[in-house]
Write a structure and sequence with these properties.
The radius of gyration is 19 Å and the shape is globular. Helix 1 crosses helix 5, helix 2 packs across helix 12 and helix 6 packs parallel to helix 7. By secondary structure, the chain is an alpha/beta fold. It has twelve helices and nine strands.
């Protein structure tokens, strides 16, 4: 039987996603007072990029599931001195029961998966951020009755978060509206796969069109890690793409705002929206813990 990995939401079925979200809700309600399904197991968590929420949520979650978390900063390991990632994968397969990696190029994740005999979880790559989307979907379930009725507006860069929302649209069944500046659109291959797998995705010509009547408005920073030399150009290109009170006023009255964090107040989102009554970003951040616990218990536990 092939080893199961979690590289993107395309790796789970709609039924599996529903199972994960129900499990995440139960784990959140339990507040740590639950069984330890991963007792006696170990999980390696590898960082090739800086992290706050991913590191904390996985470390705490692995502990609460009864397993031992081994955090590796790649620069301090032989990986940082050029050891092939495939060799690292083979070694880890004999030491631990699962691997989480937060890295740059998506091909590094694929190489790790290809050589690993144990489950690998995508903690973030430049192509997808699926663990964040699990938390986002859990947050939406706390606010709305059904995904199929939702209109989700993505305002901003066609980056790994936008790609993950496209994959989520294919699995959860909501309609995704995309508004990105010219030259910063979602990858055409990702969009084609999402649509081929049933996603309803609308490419909008303006942020106003995307937000009109939307139940969810979401965004991300204009320049991600590794794009520091593009900050000035991106600020110019993304002028008019700030999610502010006027844009939120176009959305549905019960609309919520999401952001994966960290947020640049006054750039991609106004202070009033981020800190306002429609914001669910702090619930969203907390749900990283519960959604990832559900994922790890599913991948590494007896029900995986």
């Amino acid at each position: 039987m092939a080893t199961r990995h979690f590289r993107s939401l395309f790796d789970v079925s709609r039924e599996e996603l529903d199972h994960l979200l129900k499990s995440a809700a139960a784990l959140k309600a339990a507040r740590g007072a639950h069984d330890r399904p991963l007792a006696g197991k170990s999980v390696a968590v590898i960082f090739e990029k800086a992290s706050t929420r991913t590191r904390l949520s996985f470390d705490v979650g692995i502990h609460e599931l009864g397993a031992h978390s081994v955090t590796l900063m790649a620069k301090d390991t032989q990986m940082g001195r050029g050891e092939p990632i495939e060799d690292t994968a083979r070694m880890l397969s004999g030491y631990v029961h699962g691997v989480v990696i937060r890295t740059h190029g998506h091909e590094r994740l694929e190489q790790l998966c290809g050589a690993s005999r144990i489950p690998v979880v995508n903690g973030l790559t430049d192509r997808y951020h699926p663990c964040q989307l699990l938390a986002d979907l859990q947050t939406l379930r706390e606010s709305f009755d059904a995904f199929a009725d939702l209109q989700v507006a993505w305002i901003g860069d066609g980056n790994n978060m936008a790609h993950s929302w496209a994959a989520a649209a294919a699995r959860a069944g909501f309609t995704l509206r995309l508004a990105s500046p010219k030259g910063y659109e979602v990858d055409r291959g990702v969009l084609a796969q999402a649509r081929a797998e049933g996603a309803s995705v609308v490419e909008c010509t303006s942020v106003e069109e995307a937000a009109e009547g939307a139940h969810v408005v979401t965004t991300d920073v204009w320049a991600s890690m590794g794009q520091e030399d593009e900050v000035s150009a991106r600020k110019a290109a993304f002028a008019g793409f700030c999610v502010d009170e006027a844009l939120m006023a176009r959305a549905s009255k019960d609309a919520v705002f999401l952001h994966c964090l960290p947020a640049h107040r006054g750039e991609e989102v106004s202070v009033g929206v981020l800190e306002g009554p429609q914001s669910r970003v702090w619930d969203e951040a907390e749900n990283r813990l519960h959604a990832q616990k559900a994922l790890l218990a599913w991948l590494l536990g007896e029900d995986g």
